[in-house]
Amino acid sequence: MGIKLRLVVMNFFQFFIWGAWLLTVGAYWFQNRQWSASNFGIIFSTMGIASVFMPAIMGIISDRWVNAEKLYGLCHLGGAVMLFVLPQVYSPTAFFWVLLVNMMCYMPTLALSNTVAYTVLKNNGKDVVADFPPVRIWGTIGFIAALWAVSLTGNETSSNQFYIASFISLVLGLYAFTLPKCPPLSAQAGTKIMTEALGLNAFSLFKDKKFAVFFVFSMLLGAALQLTNAYGDTFLHDFKNVAAYKDTVAVKYPAIIMSVSQISETLFILAIPFFLRKFGIKMVMLFSMLAWVLRFGLFAFANPAEGLWMILLSCVIYGMAFDFFNISGSLFVETNTSPAIRGSAQGLFMMMVNGFGALIGSFASGLIIQHFFTNANGSLSWQGIWLCFAGYALVLAIVFPVVFREKKITDNR
406: pLDDT confidence band, cut at 50, 70 and 90? Predict the structure, then answer.
């Protein structure tokens, strides 16, 4: 099996695990377990809580002591156990703790998978800016495949979604140990001071104004990503309460409709090398912010019937919104940091996006929706919700180009 094909398999399974339950856990929560909405925001915050510290810690370990591919495999094996246990708990509190442990295993693998891919590509003389996106695209395809598999088998509200994810996590965990070796790099550099010995020198990137601004806006964009993950599928499910829409395709198969977002990702991932070289990271991230404005704005006026085109267009735009800050941001970190701290720098990036960003998105949106967009009968005012989110993204798009300064990205083999 060729190097690129081996990385393709890794990325496919990496995101299949997530796609099997991430967008459908809300349907399982409300329709299968029939637990309260007040606890759901807390459950979804497990991603953010775990991402605050676990990716950075695992990045430090991969930089200093343990091969990245071995650490990656161990994390997935731990995640497989937690996903298997998850359907067997019968209270929101127990669900929270089991899911949190699962997220502590899974979230570091997002950064570790990048570290493994970048290391393997570089060790084989490849250009990460040009060669990584065609590999990473298979992660998105894996996410789509999982969504379709869960939806078409009628498991959107079933505990089977977690068993499916658990099995794939087990397979990937074992497969990881067959990947090319990715030994710690900073251990070879003869570090002298305590911060370097612990791998904490990646945090020194905050002293650089360019990186400080980059990480802050990555966090704020991470909040936007959390909003669409948490409420997109639930938004479509809610149309079942409207007689005119309850039999539409979008209401019957919301996960499949939402998968258009991931299909769109596959196209925008391939466009990243061109956009980075042509416009630089500043403009690419600005494009992402404007795309979030359109993503939320279209949802505000959409419906599953005559307004279905707006839902589909919003999903297409999601590809740019997600890829142009998530994948491009990862490449920016990779090509602008020294080899000795790249693992921990990737962990730091994930901590800002999926950690603090996810926490801000979870808790702030929950409070805002509860106080301003919940009707007397308990239903949600979705148009107001999406317009509020669109306004948030617009503010980011206005402020970002004023405070961020950066040259165009260059190749780094």
Answer: low
Q: Percent helix, strand, coil in the chain (nearest 5)?
A: 80, 0, 20
CA distance 305 to 169: 37
339: closest CA among 94, 96, 128? Answer: 128
Which residue in 255, 357, 358 sits closest to 19, CA to CA?
A: 255
Q: Are 286 and 321 in contact (CB under 8 A)?
A: no
Of 72, 82, 77, 99, which Cα lies nearest the Cα of 11?
Answer: 72
Asked whether residue 367 carries a pLDDT value surpassing 50, the answer given is: yes
Task: Please state, in angstroms and rounded to a whole number, the distance separating the CA atoms of residues 204 and 131.
Answer: 29
DSSP element (H, E) containing 174: helix 160-176
Kindly state the average pLDDT of the residues 323-339: 83
Tell me the C-alpha distance between 182 and 342, whole Å.
12
Tell me what the pLDDT averaged over the chain comes to: 85
How many beta carbons lie within 10 A of that of residue 401, not counting itself? Answer: 13
pTM higher than the cut 0.70 = yes
Of residues 188 and 219, more confidently modeled:
219
